[in-house]
Amino acid sequence: MINLFPRTSAVAQACTRRQWMRMSAAGMAGVAQLLGSQALRANSPTGAGTAKRCIQIFLCGGPSQPDLWDMKPEAPDGVRSEFKPIQTTVPGIQFGELIPQVAQHADKLAIIRSMTHTNNDHNGAIAHALLGQLPAIPGQVYVARNDHPAIGGILHKLLGDCGSLPAWVVLPRVFTTLAPPHKGQTGGFLGPGYDPLAFDKPPLGSLTDAPLKIGSLELPEGVTTNRFSARRTLNQSLGAPVEGASTTRAEELYERAYGLIGARTRSTFDLEQETPQTRDRYGRNEYGQSLLMARRLVESGVRFVNVFWTFFDTKGCQFNLWDNHGVPNDVCGIDGQLTGRQQLTHQYCTPSFDRSFSALLEDMTDRGLLEDTLVVVGGEFGRTPKINKTAGRDHWAPCYSQLFAGGGVRGGTVYGASDAQGAYVKDSPVTPDDAAATVLHAFGIDPDAAVPDTAGRPVRVTTGQPVTALF
User: Fold this and answer.
1) Segment 57-69 mean pLDDT
2) 129, 189, 271, 457: which has the highest count of C-beta atoms within 10 A?
3) Whole-number Å distance between alpha carbons of 325 and 333
4) Among residues 33, 46, 7, which one has the least CA distance to residue 451?
5) What's the confidence (pLDDT) of residue 194?
6) Which residues, including other chains, have CB under 8 Å from residue 470's CB and lie 6 or more apart?
7) Residues sharing a CB contact under 8 Å with residue 386, sequence separation 6 or more, in sequence order
8) Which pLDDT value is given to residue 225?
9) How do strand 94-96 and strand 382-383 relate by DSSP bridges?
């Protein structure tokens, strides 16, 4: 890593200004590797988008659509949810009783009830969902530099930088199921300059107030804000005696680095700037605080934010909160109050989501952000229509649901439908590829748009078709 705060050496003191700059040129490639080079934008067809920013909330493990937003109250025993349907703010749309606060915001939501694909395995389905298309080599689900870029990287490439702020941020951590990160979380073949900015890892599944910090944005020990400003002024006074594209680019990279470390940008990542009441409203756990951080980021100008709602850890046992298969016997509990994974999901995960997601929708509406900020909620698949012998539901990719809000989306609507038992798509199937194309469409990016691969050849940004009826 290039040190932006080097001590003055005897060699540097002995050099002339021009010699020092020429010597520095040797390190410019390292700076580019650190911050990423900005290649020429592809000549891609784009239109007028309805969204300027996006928060994508990924409920890892597969939320149970028969218990949340595609209930089947007329289904037979063994399929019908044990939870009661409740009315939402939209006549004719019912949610499960587990999410009463979200139900009060149904008028802001477009619910796709016809999501579908064929992979009931977590790893393959996650890679497909996050990447927005199937991996080039089936079975290879973990990140590689030659991957197709994910949505955040595509948007960065086609729409450019976001000033001193990163274009793409991941919260509260890069997603992994205790293995290498899954595909769909990098800029892929576009290069590291299009990867997201990731936070330092907070305690896994913390029930308490999560730190959510980025150590790389902190000033080095002993370097005050005034000292940092003085060094920046000194660097600017040196000028650039050698003209050329590489020198200009290096100066741009330095300015981006300085801007990222600057007090104003660092303040964006500081949750202490929020009132205690607001932080309480979102929920004092890492996922609630992550949604609050996501709101702060898009409000400041970050274009794309991933929030991965993944694991909860209690007494040394780790659970994927949304992977609700049901457990008949006692398992690790919170203060002895929980007696199974079904209860774990329903007593911690769903109430927490109900509080924090409703807070996000309410907060963004009040701040005028929802109109041009797309919010997407979903998992890699859903749950089986049939309740299993341990009172849970298993993996089910043939038919599940996904939510869209804001960014030009028509709220209070339902797109597509499942059959009478929620087993298969009845009409208007939507694949993960189509969902990704829909996000790009919201930004005005045509599905035929292209980005260059490492050889400069144009590669289509998506293999799907946008669901334009949502807008």
Assistant:
1) 95
2) 129
3) 16
4) 46
5) 96
6) 110, 112, 404, 409, 410, 413, 415, 438
7) 78, 79, 393
8) 58
9) unpaired
CATH topology of domain 45-214+274-470: Alkaline Phosphatase, subunit A (3.40.720)
Distance CA 294, CA 301 (A): 11
Return the structure tokens found at 155.
Answer: 């948007």
Nearest to 207 by CA among 101, 356, 332, 313: 313
For residue 138, cis peptide bond before it (omega within 30 degrees of 0): no
- Tokens describing residue 77: 């025993």
Provide the whole-model pTM.
Answer: 0.81
Enumerate residues 6+ apart whose C-beta is below 8 A from 167: 152, 155, 156, 159, 160, 161, 194, 302, 303, 304
pLDDT at 177: 73
Residue 392, Cβ density class (10 Å: 0-12 exposed, 13-18 middle, ≥19 buried) = buried
Domain boundaries, the chain: 45-214+274-470, 215-268
Q: Using the predicted structure, report yes or no on whether residue 336 has a pLDDT greater than 50.
A: no
**299, 368 Cβ separation under 8 angstroms:** no
- Residue in the structure block whose two tokens are 């990704």: 436
- CA torsion sign for 341, 343, 346, 349 is negative
The pLDDT tens digits for 375-398 are 999 999 999 999 998 888 999 999
List the one residue out of 281, 263, 169 whose CA is nearest residue 223: 263
For residue 223, the model assigns a pLDDT of: 59
- Buried/exposed 184-219: b ≥16 CB within 10 Å, e otherwise: bbbbbbbbebbbbbbbeebeebbbebbebeeeebee
Q: Supply φ then ψ for residue 227, to 5 degrees.
A: -65, -40
